[in-house]
Amino acid sequence: MADSRTPPEVDRAAASRRAVAARRERASLKKDVAMRVISPQELLRRALAAPDSAAGAMRVTEFLTSIPAIGEGKRDRILADLGISPVKRLGGLGVRQRVALQGYLDARWPEPAPREGRSRLVVLAGPTAVGKGTVAAHIKAHHPEIHLSVSATTRAPRPGEVDGEHYFFVDDAEFDRLIAAGELLEHATVHNRHRYGTPRGPIERVLAEGRTALLEIDLQGARQVREADPSATLVFLLPPSWDELVSRLVGRGTEGDEERARRLRTAKGELAAQQEFDFRVVNDDVARAAAEVASVAR
């Protein structure tokens, strides 16, 4: 007679698949914290909101060691100081433990808050392949009240790109002239190869009319704009996850292996700069992300 306590083979297989999927999701979340795609506070919020989720099932030891600069020794000291058992899962923390852990995170890695007195000059930046151009194009198509700046660049046009609409394509001599004449609000060399810059005139005219100007630029350019105009509103576009960012970069098919690896290294550094920005928007859906950026720009 079969043992009724033994689960059918199909149930064991399904349970095994679910366990593997859960481990992968937890590994992805830890990678997102390590790569600074999400903050430790954001992962904790997800865990507390859904204790049965992958975030909620993560052990507090795993959580802490996913944070850059926290190794096992430091992790154990933190848990002892906070009075949290190492076997605890994030979703199972008690009220006192939640408050203690939240306070520790906020004291060491405070999440940025928007500055006061921001202007209608809005800068949209983010890591390579995060989809800045796609989000900016959606804003241009669906929010005509917002002026999307057209950058100048020394790189060659990609298929489908139109001069004066997507970029002003110029050679190095013309780019040098624009810099010398003070006609660029910002300019930078991206990936050590091509130069990009924002023509100053159209932006100044739009702002003088009381309208909103949106600049879709790289991190170097965003920092230059902030230095030139400290009141500029800075928006950092984030990928849904690190794995998704890698997938998008590979999916573009416009770079070779060496170029792709170099851009990924650059992206890691760019993600670390998000603390310098007023707002962070996750590009998990283009229309939703564009609407959020547009709401910030108003």
UniProtKB/TrEMBL annotation:
Keyword ATP-binding listed: yes
Catalytic reactions on record: GMP + ATP = GDP + ADP
Positions bound to ATP: 126-133
GO MF term list: ATP binding; GMP kinase activity
Keyword Nucleotide-binding annotated: yes
Principal subcellular localization: cytoplasm
Database matches in SMART domains: GuKc
Gene3D superfamilies, alphabetized: 1.10.8.50, Guanylate Kinase phosphate binding domain, P-loop containing nucleotide triphosphate hydrolases
Highest taxon of source: Bacteria
Matches recorded under Pfam families: Guanylate_kin (PF00625), H2TH_5 (PF22525)
Top EC class for this record: transferase
Protein name (record): Guanylate kinase
Family to which this protein belongs: Belongs to the guanylate kinase family.
Purpose: Essential for recycling GMP and indirectly, cGMP.
A GO term from the CC aspect: cytosol
EC number, as in UniProt: 2.7.4.8
The Guanylate kinase-like domain, residue ranges: 119-298
Compartments where found: Cytoplasm
Entries under SUPFAM superfamilies matching the protein: P-loop containing nucleoside triphosphate hydrolases
Keywords associated with the record: ATP-binding, Cytoplasm, Kinase, Nucleotide-binding, Transferase
Organism per entry: Microbacterium hominis
Upper classification of the organism: Bacteria, Bacillati, Actinomycetota, Actinomycetes, Micrococcales
InterPro entries attached to this UniProt entry: GK/Ca_channel_bsu, Guanylate_kin-like_dom, Guanylate_kinase, Guanylate_kinase_CS, IHF-like_H2TH, IHF_actinobact, P-loop_NTPase
